[in-house]
TrEMBL record:
GO terms for cellular component: type II protein secretion system complex. The keyword Membrane applies. SUPFAM superfamilies: Pili subunits. The keyword rRNA-binding does not apply. This is Type II secretion system protein GspG C-terminal domain-containing protein. PROSITE patterns: PROKAR_NTER_METHYL. GO terms for biological process: protein secretion by the type II secretion system. The chain crosses the membrane at residues 20-44. Keywords: Membrane, Methylation, Transmembrane, Transmembrane helix.
Length: 166
């Protein structure tokens, strides 16, 4: 009596698996979905950074108001525009001084800017108004988010100076 083992049996002609075409179609669909999600992700990241910029500038403005309350209503003077992070942190005694989320220390940009219209001596409490601003990413043109000492904040397309553009 002969015993047949499975090892010596011939394989069945019906093979299981995917064809090359099916695999290529699946890869193409995955690639398209990844490409679409990458564009959406980029926009979401820009919006997130812009929201942080707005929050950071509001934080600076709150600290400036506290400074003015202690100094007879005057803000730190500045004869021209300056980097808010390096200039204001010392005057405002902020423990965590925010900087732009895309700040690059090698190039120094982008940064939050601080202007006063009546600067007087730099750093002394002599300014009666101020303007803080940052470039906003998630717009088609070069727009600026501006926070003014008069309480106004919003977008402007003109490069801000010591006078509130809103």
């Amino acid at each position: 009596m002969l015993i047949k083992s499975r090892i010596f049996q011939t394989p069945n002609n019906s093979q299981k698996g995917f064809t090359l075409i099916e695999i290529l179609v699946a890869i193409a669909i995955i690639a398209i979905l990844l490409a679409l999600s990458a564009f959406g992700f980029q926009g979401a990241m820009e919006n997130t950074r812009d929201t942080r910029r707005k929050s950071d500038l509001k934080q600076y403005q709150t600290a400036l108001e506290q400074y003015a309350n202690k100094n007879n209503g005057f803000y730190p003077g500045r004869t021209g525009g300056t980097d808010a992070h390096s200039t204001l942190c010392g005057y405002l005694s902020m423990t965590n001084c925010p900087n732009d989320p895309t700040y690059n220390s090698a190039t120094g940009t982008p940064i939050y800017r601080y202007f006063t219209s009546d600067g007087g001596n730099t750093g002394l409490p002599q300014a009666t108004t101020n303007v803080l601003w940052s470039i906003i990413e998630a717009t088609s043109a070069t727009d600026y988010w501006v926070v003014c000492s008069n309480g106004k904040s919003g977008l402007t397309t003109s490069s801000p100076s010591g006078t509130c553009p809103l």
